[in-house]
Amino acid sequence: QTLLQGIILLPLRAVCITFILLLAWLVASIATFSQPGRGILPLQGWRRRMIHTALSGLTRTAYFVMGFQVKVKGKVASPSEAPIFVAAPHSSFFDAIICALTGMPSIVSRAENLSSPVFGTILSSLQPVAVSRQDPDSRKNTVAEITRRALSRGQWPQVI
Known about the structure:
Layout: H1 2-32, H2 45-66, H3 95-101, E1 108-110, H4 119-125, E2 129-131, H5 138-150
Parallel strand pairs: 1-2
């Protein structure tokens, strides 16, 4: 019986996750379409709300479809309380759960990740701080950008 459930559930889950991923790509594309000050200015208004609510909800839904249920105990710190949110060690796809639970903050990511076809668009909508491994000044520039965003008095979302 378990094998039969797996044979039915695996393709169903794969189809649902693919649909959710494409929907997230569409939301990210709409929210960042002809964005003023792309990458330099923070998303504001309907664009930020769209990323915050839609992508956060879609991410939680995707994890639910995969079989994960996450409960938050306590209160998540607001961006004004903690402009920098540290999640470590970040080495798996479970980091997206933290992003969904904290309202889709800006993240620090390799610059190469932004060129991925679907995930790159979704990642770009989070306005990441891109780290280039080829640039010798990248580490210093990354620290400066994180500091600039943390001191922006809530204009930028939390940085994770």
